[in-house]
Amino acid sequence: MADWDNSATPEADLGLREAGNGNAAAPGPPRDAEAAARAREKGWSEPQPLDYNRHANVATRGNADTSSNTLVEVPKWAHDAAKYEYRGEAGILGPVMADLELQLFGGTEMRLKKGVRWDLQQKIQAIVESVHKISPVMSLEDAGIHPAMLENCKKLGYNDTTPIQAYTIPAVLLGHDVIGIAQTGSGKTGAFLIPALSKLMGKAKKLGGPRPDLSTDPGARVRAEPLILVVAPTRELCIQIFDEARRLCYRSMLRPCIAYGGGPIREQRDDLRKGCDVLIATPGRLRDFMKDPSLLALHRLRFTVIDEADEMLHEDWAEDLQEILAGADASQDSQHQYLLFSATFDKRMRTLAKRYLAQNYVRIRIGRIGSTVSTITQRIVWVDGNKKKDALYDLLLDSPPARTLIFVKSKKMVDIVDDYLYNRGLPTTSIHADRTQLEREDAIRSFRIGKCPILITTGVSARGLDINNVMHVINYDLPSIEYNGKDEYIHRIGRTGRLGNIGAATSFYNEADEALAPFLAALLVENDQAIPDFLEEYAPPADQPLNFDDDSADEVDDFGAENNTNTDDAGGTWGNGSADVVEVAKAGPAADTAWGGTDTSNDVGGASW
Fold first, then answer.
1. Would you place residue 589 in the very low, low, confident or very high pLDDT band (cuts 50, 70, 90)?
2. Measured between alpha carbons, how far is 30 from 53 in angstroms, rounded to an integer?
3. At the fourth CATH level, which superfamily is domain 130-209+224-371+561-574?
């Protein structure tokens, strides 16, 4: 584990986990010294006793202009993280702030790392359905984004676009509503944040709501009137998006905020009252804040973004989502745009699109809906239910020590598996819905920096989780077919193999998972992977096309898909943009108008911005 600092605490009681909140699980089996020794021999670091109330500083290396190591404070709560604060600056862009820049961009772990199979990612088929011609952009240099945004992207190591970004960025810059359907790990967050923030750069003072000057009046408070609203189903996903927004907002004078359940509501309310231009929120906490018009108003919204939209349409969130969209629909801005992103696109999604999006919205599909990326090696192994724990331990010892994500079926099983592995000397941590938000954030942080490189979780808790260098995903329990198991499997293994990086996914299978067998067999065939003997009878015949029960392939949308004149199928080279589509009056590159550089009446931007 040379990449991570995993030094143990020698004086710690290694028999039991420490938990600062007093809610530690009951003691597990006695510590197995022999098993722990084998884990050390295989290269796994010592397990770390967890103190959820400890938030020590984390050392990160400075950027290219900084030769010394600098301690960057790790905040207790996500909303306390370093971000732009308005200080009465003149001009349309904020000043260069060396300390803040170091906080946001200083660590090399914050830079995008392309995988060795990045070329495969770039060859994924793209299908663009629209009455508008959308010319893809191959690099951010050519995308027409604001110079300050381009500089932020470079600081993060973003240069080339992914397929979903190549079409979404110009579509958003040209003012269209967008539905983006792409495989997990395809760069969807950047696809909506980069163009939306770019269009507002230089206009924060003109378009934004009231903002207090905290440099002259630290106690001043205002009503939050965001220009961008991003809604995501889980706290962890919201925190990820917020972290990205903090960096991309640098020097924009746009102040990002976050609101999520489990965090201190009074502190989150106070943070919003300091001014909010970009709000990232979970549905429940957002609805709570929407009930107080003195705290939050949505009438200034320019962009409403729904991430993991398919997950948000489940029964648990459907009512929340309808209320949120109804509130966003009250935006008084005629140029308001809806952006929906998902890995799947079923009938519920189409109904949502027809209700809220403009009739001529752009639909961008990258790869087959609900497919996996070819950089993931999938392996299905038979393991009897009563032998899973031993099989998991053996699998981890036989695998190279690396960031590993383990999925189980229930919160109780999370605790059982975590306790079992920890007491056999493996560096684990875990999250589930019953953990406090502070515990969850601490566990994710420990996993992200590699202090605890094995994370056990349920599928719901890890939805949308994006952590660099997850090399191995293990389905200790496969998802149930009765509870959207096919999509859940795709989302789980999509935590690895991102952005061209190589990843592995191992799934424990037995007779209880038979309902999922035809899907697993077809998925292995689609990705040219080995089919185990016990799944061979479920494999589709070689002379028949694969069928994944995709109910969206033949859907006719309002913008005229039945004529087949509006579909841009980019084939194996998604960047050529050469297929015939219906042209509009101005369908060239978005560069001239994306941030108000040209005053042309037919352009999106220009004088109207």
1. very low
2. 26
3. P-loop containing nucleotide triphosphate hydrolases (3.40.50.300)
